[in-house]
Amino acid sequence: MSTESENNFLENFEYLIEQKKYYKLQWNIKTGFNKLLNSKEFFQYSNTQIKNSPNFLLQICNSHSRGFIQDTVKAFIKGDLLNGQYEFIVNDKSGNPVWLTLFANLLNNNDDGIILNCLIEDTTPHEKTKNALLKSEVEKTQILNSMVDGAVYVSPDLKIKYANQTFIDKYPKYTNNLKGQPCYKVMHNMDNPCITCSVQKVLKTKKFHKNVRSVKNGPSTQTLTYPVFDEKQQINGAVIISRDISESKNIERALKKEATINKLIAEISQEILRPKISEENIAKRILSASLQLTKSSIGYASAKNIDTQEITWKAFENYSLNSNATLKDPCIHDDVSKCLSIYLKDKIEPFLSNHLKQFLLEKQLDDCNITHENCLMIPAIFNEELVGQIYVGGSERTYNDNDIDVLNQLANVYALSIFRKNSEKELIKAKEEAEESNKLKTAFLANMSHEIRTPMNSINGFSELLRNTEQPENIRNKYLDTIYKSSNQLLRIINNVLDISKLEVGQVKIIEKEYDINQIVYDSIQTFSTDVFNGKDIELKTKVPFEGAEAVILCDGPRLQQVITNFIQNALKFTQKGFIEIGYELIDNNIQFHVKDTGLGVSYENQKLIFERFGQAEVGYSRNFEGAGLGLSICKGFVELMGGEIWLESEISKGSIFYFTIPYKPVAKNIQTSTIKTSSKQYNWKEKKILLVEDEAFSQNFMETILLPNGVKIAYAGDGFEALDKVRQNPDIDLILMDIRLPGIDGIEATKKIRLLGFDKPILAQTANALPEDKKLCLEAGCNEFVAKPITRIEFLKTINGLLFPEE
């Protein structure tokens, strides 16, 4: 049942409650639930008894007071009353009468009902004092003098007959001649009776009268006037009890203010949580409430920009006659100047100053358009992170801790709204990115299907022609050349897909060795056959400034060459005439490579896209250039793994320059560089015997084709078990070519068992399982070397020769 409003109430008036014997009771007048908040007992009734007694106050009232309280409760329920002060009589647990004064404030709670915040004062001593006055003059004097309230006995002619010590102390001017003085002269410094004289009303009506008088910025006084009767029940004057109720009035004002604040915050919360309200309107509403509650004339509300992460002004209000500041020009200084708004920009603690000019002087800050002598800034914090600020200044009064508390409540609401808006933006952004990614992937899959089917169509088509038709030798050679090129194109696509897959799962490892980067540049160029330049007017240039030992560095040579080759291939694809330049230079201990072309260029909006997975400058069925859209994203992945960066500069119709960097790690020695030899070499293996373990007939035929011209003898095995038998039957085997995927037992197990037989000659694994972990398994099983399919003939023969003749 406890609310934030009630917690604040207790915190603000805890001292008063302890010192003045006030009781704080929470009463749900709709459900009957009661709860005592600040004491263990209430006139001998425990808190548990109170909780278990619905409408507790009604139960303990005497018969006269019960009807009065019931009528008052009905007025609260109807909404005719919001707060008030009431006096009634109850019985304590022992049955003794107790006089109470109740200060009640209404709180609406849609979930729990209608709640009264009740502040109850025990006024029994005052009532006993009044009754004592009628019994005994001696007792009357003693009791009156012990009262903390002023008490005076006035005759029907409005003359003072007796006053207690508290009253005398309050009017020291009449200490020695108070008796017989007109009450209006002593109490109000008037020459004639008051127009609203309470004594005259009591004398006339013979009934009790209450009056409250408040002085602006001063005390509030309550006068309780009671009729006094003689033994014959004739009125004999009146007793006036003068009570200082400033504290009670302060409580009442605080309750009203708190109710106003809670209502305003509830309204704001409802407004700013509407889905379509803008950030600016949220900030304006929060700022308007802040200025209203603190009586300020100038202020701003700022919020964190989700893109830049900077705190920027969202709303600004200026009612000050001393400032011309606006939201567009909030300060006379720029962002680097020392002014108040810049000083407060990243503060995460409340800032309060009622002597701002002195503060600016001490901090060596400049005056600006929002500078006033007093100001207050409250940060809006969400999840321990600064998301905004509320600043107010120029109040006619000084700011205090209550202002901090009020703005803290608004700042909490503001922080929640900022977080919600930023979350909405992030969700929208994520949705757009997901939709864009889905479009790119769909386009990629369609393009990949095209890229794979195109070379496959050439391979299948020309293979069928060679098989089923008779063609002249030059035509047959043309078909074979087309099949070879299409196969290489398909292999490049598959390699790219594998590279992307390994980059995605983090399986690509960078292995640094000593390489000559000049040789890597030259080798990258030599990978392209001369026919790629057919129909193009292109000059190929190089720019390699390093010479000798300074060109020898630690790097991953194959990855570096793959990146350069992809850049060159990309430049060749989009360049018809002009030049392509491949080179590098040393900048800040990094080698910056570049591939420059005079091709079509890339539009600004596509420059970031082409480095992303599945990103291409062209999409759709009308694409003019082949490619799966993976090459540049692979380059980006490799470059970043090597510790570098990648970017481009481009202009439509003028060309592009692709850049990337790697760390410069020189090796202080010369190495002999050489070019890759592409010519075929004949080996002499006439005295050698190779066991070919292969279950595929096409692969067997291919191996025969490249092995037999070198004079070698070949034994065949179609599975792992047959390979074991061949080793047992042919002790003269010099080398085993072991496929890994085999029927029966696979190549890994077959290799292990062959080694157990005592076979110590080389075993070369040749398999389509090309991942690093596959190579590791083969070598651990006992293989000497590993070659991934599809096989490059020249390198394959070179590897076999090295195993047959290790001493060469």
Word description of this protein:
- This protein is of the alpha+beta class and about 800 residues long.
- The protein contains 23 helices and 29 strands.
- The strands form seven sheets. A five-stranded antiparallel sheet has the order 2-1-7-6-5, sandwiched between helices.
- A hairpin with a 5-residue loop joins strand 11 and strand 12 (about 235-245).
- The longest helix has about 70 residues, at about 400-470.
- The protein is elongated.
- The model is unreliable at about 5-15, about 615-630 and about 670-680 (pLDDT under 50).
Please describe the structure with a list of short key phrases separated by commas or semicolons.
single chain, 808 residues, alpha+beta, 5-stranded antiparallel β-sheet, 23 helices, 29 strands, elongated
Strand numbers in spatial order across the main sheet: 2-1-7-6-5
Helix content: 40-55%
Shape: elongated
Mean pLDDT: 80
Tally of strands: 29
Largest sheet: 5 strands, antiparallel
Instruction: Quickly give the structural class.
Output: alpha+beta
> Helical element count?
23
Strand percent estimate: 15-25%
Unreliable residue stretches: 5-13, 616-628, 670-679
Gyration radius from CA atoms, angstroms:
49 Å
The separation of the N and C termini measures 93 Å
